[in-house]
Amino acid sequence: MKKIDGHLHLVRSVSGINGKGRMTPLGDGKAIWDNGTPLKLIPDGWGDDNFLAESALKVMDENGINKSVLLQGSLYAFQNFYTYQSVKKHPDRFIGAFSFDPFSADAMTIVKRHVEDLGFRTVKFEISEGGGLHGYHSPFRLDTDETIGRFFHYIADYPGFVVTVDYGDYTQLSYEPEAIVNLAKRYPMIDFVVCHLSFPNADHLNRLENALRQWEPLPNISTEISAIQDIEGETEFPFPRCQKDVALAKKILGPQRIFWGSDAPWSATFNSYHNLSSWLEATDIFTEDELEDVMYNNPDRIYFKPQNVKAVAEAVDPVTGE
Predict the structure, then answer these.
(1) Which of 245, 239, 106 is nearest to 169 (CA)?
(2) Which residues sit opposite 31 in a β-bridge?
(3) Predicted confidence band at 144 (pLDDT cuts at 50, 70, 90)?
(4) In angstroms, what CA-CA distances link 69 with 83, 230, 319?
(5) Superfamily holding 4-313
(6) Contacts made by residues 62-65, CB under 8 angstroms, sequence distance 24+
(7) Which of 12, 80, 164, 192 has its CA 20 to 30 A from that of 303?
(8) Where are the domains of the chain?
């Protein structure tokens, strides 16, 4: 079976930022936040202070992963240009998203460089209070903030653009599944992807169902199921709590609006990448045809649109000439 990892991070250099301050790498895949919180960020053997494209390709090849979607997040710091370089070097294996701080003075200059010069057709909004923009900005909403509105007005000129959002869990001010609904209605030619299945909890499935029911009428909203093992605190393969979450998503959205991702490298420090990439095959949630959609066809349709692949393939950075 062909597979796409719909949520993978490359790390050229660790320099994360969130509400805990800045991150300092310590070697051996470990790091520490400014507030003193330590973490194991990169699995053993993947890299000491980085997770480069060559390492990612090795992991992918060992686990039968054909392609990956390279996303950004504040945990590692934005790796935008390295993502661009990696996609250009391995166009048959990678497609990438860029990220930006919409409240920075040069926000729209940054957006236009990545879209017009570098050919990106996906943006990742890591807005969660725990790990993203809400951790170091005043509260805002994606669907009503005038500053962020400038960005959406701009990408409306690019049908097929993908907006990927991590908004954290329901305890955080950043949790806004209804904002995705409002944006998807306003921009029907844009695809919206919600990360991590809206941060589910198998003991409170009504909350997840409420979000999914809101998205149900809108075909341009999909969700990926990366890192739900971390969110559910599961290490027992094949993750029975996660099975309940995904079964509910299938019931409401159908198998064509769900896809798999790992959220590695960090998620692969809690569960092996092999288990993360194979757990759905050990369940009966999806038929064989449906599993092919979830593992490959759906992320391929959303992210690897021919015009999106072509845009970055034809891009030449006017600054570096790459």
Answers:
(1) 245
(2) 25, 39
(3) very high
(4) 10, 20, 25
(5) Metal-dependent hydrolases (3.20.20.140)
(6) 63/3, 63/273, 63/274, 63/277, 63/278, 64/1, 64/3, 64/277, 65/3, 65/4, 65/5, 65/277
(7) 12
(8) 4-313
Once rounded to an integer, what is the mean pLDDT over residues 98-105?
A: 97
pLDDT in tens, 255-287: 999 999 999 999 999 999 999 999 999 999 999
Q: Are 87 and 18 in contact (CB under 8 A)?
A: no
Q: For the chain, what is the HEC assignment?
A: CCCEEEEECCECCCCCEECCEEEEEEECCEEEECCCCEEECCCCCCCCCCECHHHHHHHHHHCCCCEEEECCCCCCCCCHHHHHHHHHHCCCCEEECECCCCCCCCHHHHHHHHHHHCCCCEEEEECCCCCCHHHCCCCCCCCCCHHHHHHHHHHCCCCCCEEEEECCCCCCCCCCHHHHHHHHHHCCCCEEEEHHHHCCCCCCHHHHHHHHHHHCCCCCEEEECCCHHHHHCCCCCCCHHHHHHHHHHHHHHCHHHEECCCCECHHHHCCCHHHHHHHHHHCCCCCHHHHHHHHHHHHHHHHCCHHHHHHHHCCCCCCCCC
Token pair of 299 as six digits: 């992320």
Three-state SS string over 101-126 comes to CCCCCCHHHHHHHHHHHCCCCEEEEE
CB atoms within 10 A of CB 300: 19
∠ Cα 216 222 223 (to 5°): 110
Model pTM score: 0.98
State the CB neighbour count (10 A cutoff) for residue 125. 23
Angle, vertex CA 72, rays to CA 222 and CA 195, nearest 5:
25
Q: What is the per-residue pLDDT for 121?
A: 98
Residues 229-247, mean pLDDT to the nearest whole number:
98
Reported as half-sphere exposure (CB side, CA atoms, 13 A), residue 322 has a value of 13
